[in-house]
Every structure is written in C-alpha cells, then in structure tokens.
Amino acid sequence: MKNLIAGNWKLKGSPNLADSYISHLSRIKPDNCIVVVCPTHDLLGYIYDKWSNEFGHLGAQDCFHDDTNYNDGLGTPDEIVSRGAKYIILGHSDRRNKCHETSELVRKKVNLAWNKGLIPIVCVGEESGDRKGNLTQIVVNGQIADSIDFDNLRGPFVIAYEPVWAIGSGNIPTMEEIGEVHDEIRKLLITLTDETRGGNTPLLYGGSADVQNASSILAVENVNGLLIGGASLNIQTFGTIIDCA
Ligand code: 13P
Are strands 225-228 and 3-8 parallel, antiparallel or unpaired? Predict the structure, then answer.
C-alpha cells in the first residue's frame, strides 16, 4: 500500500503557504505516496482554484454533523465537497477533548461524510494518563469501534492514531509502542470487517511527526502514513517528509 502523507494545517496556514505548496507540488508531482493537504475551509476554496490532481488531494478539517438545516459555524460536507476536498479529518483530539465531541457524534459525521463521497480520516488516541494506566489499547479500540458504524460501512476510511500527549509536544512513543498500537488496530479492523478491508485500511501515525522521525515511523509495520500538524506548516519540511515516504 502506498504511504499516505497528510498535512493538517489546523487553524494556521495562509494564502502564502498555500502558494508555496502549489509551487512545490507542481514541481515534484508526488506519485510514490498519496499526499493530502487539509487547510481551513476558506483556504480550501483558495487552493482548489489552482489545484491539479497531480499534486495530491485536498482534505477538510471537521464538518457539521447534519446537513438538513441551516447551521451556524462548521461547514457542511456539501460545502466541503464543492471546494474540492476528497478527505475529511474527523474526531481529532482537539474536537474530542476541547469541544467535548463524543465518538457517537463522530460516527454521525463519518456517516454523513460517506453519504457525500468523502473519505473520513478518523483520529483516535490516548491521553498520557491512559498510557500510564496501561489503558491505551482499550481507549483506542473503543474510539474506533464507537466512531465508525461497522454494521453499515458505506465507504473507505482511514484511521489516524494520534496519542494526545504527543501532539505538538515534541515527544513521541517509541517505535515499538507505535508498532504495538498499530498491530492491534489492524487486528481490530480485520475482526470488525474482513481480511481484505481490515488489511487494506491505511493506518496513519500523528503526533510530533517531523523530518527527524518520519523515516523511522514509516518503517514500522502497519504504519501506512503520517498525519502531520506543525511540520506541515513549512513546505520544505513537509516536502522532505514526502521524500521520506
Ligand atoms: P503535530 O504534528 O503538530 O504534533 O500535530 C499532530 C496533529 O494533531 C495532526 O492532526
């Protein structure tokens, strides 16, 4: 499976950053890995006007869970699709922990994203206390099982394992620890789906991934790519990580 390298700009990013991405990706036209760029919704439209499929794919960050009414705040999947996105990050720890988003709500968003033809990147991950209490796998497996409607799968999806304590901290689990969690996620997906689907769902690692550790993390069994925050805010850094993949 090709590695998937996704940049999550979160609420950062600018037209300048977007232009530097477009200029870099138009030169390298990455084809050894899948590149996904996830800017804010306003920049999504800005980038889409200048985007080519050879550069990779666009992704959105989050959406409202219901598209039947006018809703304030978050964009709807329809709006996101109209701005060229193919992927959508859902259940990021910022949403789960800072906005009290439950896995049940994430599941509604995943279903809605599938209805609109988007590929959800479903984020899961433990807090430092969970890890210290040996609860990592229980937390991660529970979030996966509850965030995705496995009885009614309607499209492809991606899992991003992002330990909450690793995000933006400069600290990452050991390669063995990443491997253990990813192996267990793989087993869980095969149990909840089947060998083909569970075996081919991309499993990304996220949390302080950068140029120093990208190659080592990508070499871990059952790691199929990276979800990158801070290091995606500079195209040279992000470009080097694409090269690693
Ligand atoms: P950092 O790479 O900045 O730690 O962020 C990871 C992340 O949250 C990506 O979704």
Answer: parallel
Q: Do residues 65 and 39 touch, judged by C-beta distance below 8 A?
A: no
Nearest-angstrom CA–CA distance, 116 and 209 = 30
User: Ligand 1 pocket, 170 CB below 6 A?
Assistant: no
> Which residue's CA lies nearest to atom 1 of ligand 1?
229
pLDDT-derived band of residue 12, with 50, 70 and 90 as boundaries? very high
Residue 173 zone, left/alpha/beta (φ > 0; ψ -120 to 50; rest): beta
d(CA 212, CA 217): 10
With a CB cutoff of 8 Å and minimum separation 6, the contacts of 149 are 107, 110, 111
Phi then psi for 215, rounded to 5 degrees?
A: -65, -45
Query: Helices (H), strands (E): how many in the chain?
Result: 11, 8
Q: Can you give the pTM of this predicted structure?
A: 0.97
CB 124 within 8 A of CB 147: yes
Give the whole-angstrom CA distance, residue 71 versus residue 189.
Answer: 34
| Contact criterion met (CB below 8 Å) for 173 and 209 | no
Please indicate whether residue 172, judged by its CB atom, sits closer than 6 Å to ligand 1. Answer: no
pLDDT per position as a tens digit, 35-59: 999 999 999 999 999 999 899 999 9
Minimum CA distance residue for ligand 1 atom 7: 229
Residue 8, helix vs strand vs coil: strand
C-alpha–C-alpha distance, residues 6 and 193, integer Å: 24
- The pLDDT tens digits of the residues spanning 65-75 come to 888 766 767 78
Q: What is the spatial distance between Cα 55 and Cα 86, in angstroms, rounded to a whole number?
A: 13
